[in-house]
Amino acid sequence: MHFLVMIIATILAYLIRIISQQNYFQKKQNWNISLFFFIVPVLLVLMSSIAIVAMGYQGQMWGIKATMISYILAWLCLSYAVINLLIYYLEIKKISTKISQLSEETILNNKVKILNTSFPYAGLMGFTKGNKKLLNPCFGSYLVLSKGLIELLSKEHLQAVISHEKAHQKHQDPLIFFCLSYCKKITFWLPNNEQLWNDLVLLRELRADKTASKSVDFLLLAESLLMVTQKAMEQKNPVDYEFICPFMNSRLNERIEALINQNDSPEIIIWHQLSWIIVVFIPFLIIPFHQ
Q: 245 has which bridge partners?
């Protein structure tokens, strides 16, 4: 019976991701929809594994004996998740420590880490809540700008870029997308993984653009996007920090269009509307039936 629970959870995960490929959902720019299709399949499999480990391999459920096979599979699944989380944590700790050692300057009244490259780059990294650092002191909040970006932009355009990155900090995007990026890594085998990830990244950038446009002219943001993208296309050695919230990404037209049409900007995350997350705890409901 426990093995059947694993099979059902895996099938449901696949079905949810297959449904996410329908045109109706792909045309939506909505946090709740994208998060549902991205997160629920991951958590269904993990929660089913936790439930099976909690019940053990002895006893029976609804007259069907538990087996060692399902118990071992559940432990393998959880071990894979934990090992990948540890590896990802160590990778980020290494890069975070490296960035913390970069030279620091004050630019437009903001302390920034200076990346010594001609590639036009701006990004925010670090897990903070208010003034408190999360996880580890080495994960402080850092605004990273490259020399190439500082030389490329005027003060007004540079201020627009900094406002965009500070919007990421306001919305705790580095921490949120650390978790989402981890989910992406351990569910590479599920369909539509890359597309859903790209949609979430776009929504993240649209939200930061919308927040920044409240304090700076949205045209400055749009112009900065164009200037940085054009310059970046000329460079041979891009900077790639996946866990950092970078100013530039590949879906330029959609961001500029959203900036111009402010009323068409996507919704922000409304946490109380994420009540659908309780469905991932359904596997725990079978535990009382195990004897």
A: 124
Two structure tokens written together for 181: 């990026």
What mean pLDDT is predicted for residues 264-273?
Answer: 57
CA-to-CA dists, residue 122 to 13, 245, 247, angstroms: 36, 8, 6
Q: Give the tens place of pLDDT for each residue, 108-159.
A: 999 999 988 888 888 888 765 444 444 444 456 788 998 999 999 999 999 9
Phi-psi region of 181 (alpha: psi -120 to 50; beta: other; left: phi over 0): alpha
Torsion of CA 253, 255, 261, 264, to 10 degrees: 110
DSSP β-bridge partners for residue 60: 65
Query: 110 pairs with which residues across the strands?
Result: 107
3-state secondary structure (DSSP) of residue 247: coil
Least Cα distance to 51 among 291, 289, 286, 278 occurs for 286
Residues 221-245 as b/e (b if ≥16 CB within 10 A, e otherwise) read bbbbbebbbebbeeeeeebebebbb
Q: Is the CB of residue 59 less than 8 Å from the CB of residue 290?
A: yes
Structural domain boundaries of the chain?
2-267+277-289
Task: Name every residue whose Cβ is closer than 8 Å to that of residue 257 and which is 6 or more positions away in sequence.
Answer: 264
